[in-house]
């Protein structure tokens, strides 16, 4: 460790104390790799400020010494956006000590939190106040609000409540020079110029460090109706989605799709799961309605699905009669990530498409991938209600590193070219990070890239905020 690094660590210790530093390599292990174990890096120090004031001092020091900062929350990202490089020159700024619920305002339906608050804890705090925070992810027990904001997280309730950009009213951000922007306003209307908040949401730590947020709350839903349906085609599911929206309106909170291969994978690799339907279907949907009181949701869903079966849109359906049955269905949906890790080597595509283009896209993509003769299996699932597919391609576990790399390059270009042709996006909810950084230059227009770079340079002229990610 050189003298400059030793001086930096000493100065950081004077700001955050011993409790705020992680310097031992064995204690840094969980910080310097992503949870998929795909990206690995190295740092001299992980700094864990306790509040916004300490964060500002840390960033001010890094700005003065031109030390690159990688901001990290729960480190649950899927694109390598919170993993340092292997130079050892970067500092990880972990927000996990900033974990206060600052205020809950049930009259204004808002909650103000530190960025390091775990998502599940924010949900609990809202529930304790008789309110509801609807963001729900598989990683909600470990991901943080700051990370959710930095990646504009989506999850299973986007169809009704939107992603984090829709769920945040105000932010507090430490800028790259250490100044603090206090935008913690719980306003639904604020027409006073550029919306700075939206620049930071989804910026993946490249413009500043989010330290606090004002979140929207909602009335707690007390009634739910859940069903699993099977049908022959994605076109049929899209039509069923349209009918469900028309009939149920905002009561529709989730419309999740799983292909037959996705379901089979979960049933094989996740314990205590069983097939919901007697006969396997080519495509499945998990549908959930919710409302603040029981206004006949069960009967509404039963009538809707009965008509769909008469019209041969749906082959079979299971309508839950209790919460235990609903939880079992959600365990299937939430078990896909675990099952995929156990089953093979994955080439992942987190894509967004107009719902009307999904069926045609999948048909064409499956045909093109089959022509590649890669011994690949398509694991296709996702949030059909908002057009977000996890169109993953699984190749055998026995595939060599070189084979995986070659297949990844080939299939990424094939899938993403087709996504772009259909006016879609190559990153729907997992962010760009390191995973899609180079591809972004290919699929974004030169003008869009220029404008994004200008914003980056305006906020971060020293280029210290999460270098090598996004741009």
What number of domains?
4
Number of helices, counting only DSSP H or I runs of 4 residues or more? 17
- Oligomerization status of the protein chains: single chain
CATH topology category name of the largest domain: Uridine Diphospho-n-acetylenolpyruvylglucosamine Reductase, domain 3
**Largest sheet: number of strands, sense, barrel closure:** 8 strands, antiparallel
Mean of pLDDT: 95
Tell me what the CATH architecture of the largest domain is: 2-Layer Sandwich
- Overall structural class, as computed from helix and strand content, comes to alpha+beta
**What gross morphology would you assign?**
globular
Number of E-type strands:
19
What does this structure look like?
Residues 39-220 form the FAD-binding PCMH-type domain. The protein folds into 4 domains: 3-94, Uridine Diphospho-n-acetylenolpyruvylglucosamine Reductase, domain 2, CATH 3.30.43; 101-219, 2-Layer Sandwich (Uridine Diphospho-n-acetylenolpyruvylglucosamine Reductase, domain 3); 223-335, Alpha-Beta Plaits, CATH 3.30.70; 344-443, 2-Layer Sandwich (Alpha-Beta Plaits), CATH 3.30.70.2740. Helices cover 37% and strands 20% of the residues. It has helices at 3-16, 25-28, 52-65, 119-128, 145-150, 158-161, 164-167, 196-200, 234-248, 260-269, 297-310, 323-334, 336-343, 358-371, 401-421, 437-443, 446-459; strands at residues 21-22, 46-47, 69-72, 91-94, 101-105, 110-114, 131-132, 168-174, 180-183, 209-216, 218-219, 223-231, 252-259, 283-291, 316-319, 345-347, 350-352, 377-383, 388-395. The protein starts with a helix and ends in a 12-residue tail after the last helix. It contains 17 helices and 19 strands. It is globular and about 75 Å long. The relative contact order is 0.11. The chain has 471 residues and is α+β, with helices and mostly antiparallel strands.
């Amino acid at each position: 460790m050189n003298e400059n690094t030793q001086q930096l660590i000493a100065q950081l210790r004077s700001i955050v104390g011993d409790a705020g530093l992680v310097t031992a390599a064995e204690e840094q292990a969980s910080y310097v790799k992503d949870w998929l174990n795909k990206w690995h890096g190295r740092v001299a120090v992980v700094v864990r400020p306790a509040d916004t004031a300490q964060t500002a001092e840390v960033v001010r020091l890094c700005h003065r010494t031109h030390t690159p900062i990688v901001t990290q929350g729960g480190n649950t990202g899927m694109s390598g956006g919170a993993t340092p490089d292997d130079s050892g020159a970067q500092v990880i700024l972990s927000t996990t000590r900033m974990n206060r619920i600052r205020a809950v305002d049930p009259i204004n339906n808002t909650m103000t939190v530190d960025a390091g608050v775990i998502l599940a804890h924010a949900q609990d705090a809202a529930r304790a106040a008789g309110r509801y925070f609807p963001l729900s992810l598989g990683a909600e027990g470990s991901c943080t609000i700051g990370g959710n904001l930095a990646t504009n997280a989506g999850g299973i309730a986007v169809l009704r409540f939107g992603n984090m950009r829709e769920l945040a009213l105000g932010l507090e951000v430490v800028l790259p020079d250490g100044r603090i922007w206090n935008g913690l306003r719980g306003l639904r209307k604020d027409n006073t110029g550029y919306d700075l908040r939206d620049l930071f949401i989804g910026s993946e730590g490249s413009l500043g460090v989010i330290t606090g947020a004002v979140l929207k709350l909602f009335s707690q839903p007390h009634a739910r109706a859940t069903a699993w349906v099977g049908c022959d085609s994605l076109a049929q599911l899209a039509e069923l989605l349209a009918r469900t929206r028309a009939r149920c309106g905002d009561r529709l909170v989730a419309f999740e799709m799983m292909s037959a291969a996705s379901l089979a994978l979960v049933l094989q690799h996740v314990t205590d799961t069983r097939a919901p339907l007697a006969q396997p279907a080519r495509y499945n949907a998990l549908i959930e309605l919710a409302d603040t009181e029981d206004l006949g949701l069960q009967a509404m869903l039963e009538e809707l699905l009965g008509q769909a079966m008469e019209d041969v849109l749906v082959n079979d359906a299971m309508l839950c009669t209790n919460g235990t049955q609903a939880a079992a269905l959600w365990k299937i949906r939430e078990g896909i990530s675990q099952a995929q890790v156990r089953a093979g080597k994955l080439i992942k595509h987190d894509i967004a498409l107009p719902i009307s283009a999904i069926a045609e896209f999948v048909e064409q993509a499956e045909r093109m991938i089959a022509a590649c003769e890669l011994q690949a299996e398509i694991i296709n699932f996702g949030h059909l209600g908002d057009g977000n597919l996890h169109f993953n391609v699984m190749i055998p576990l026995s595939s060599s590193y070189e084979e995986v790399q070659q297949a990844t390059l080939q299939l990424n270009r094939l899938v993403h070219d087709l996504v772009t042709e259909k006016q879609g996006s190559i990153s729907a909810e997992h962010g760009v990070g390191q995973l899609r950084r180079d591809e972004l230059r290919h699929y974004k227009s030169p003008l869009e890239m220029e404008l994004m770079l200008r914003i980056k340079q305006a906020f971060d002229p020293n280029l210290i905020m999460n270098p090598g990610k996004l741009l």
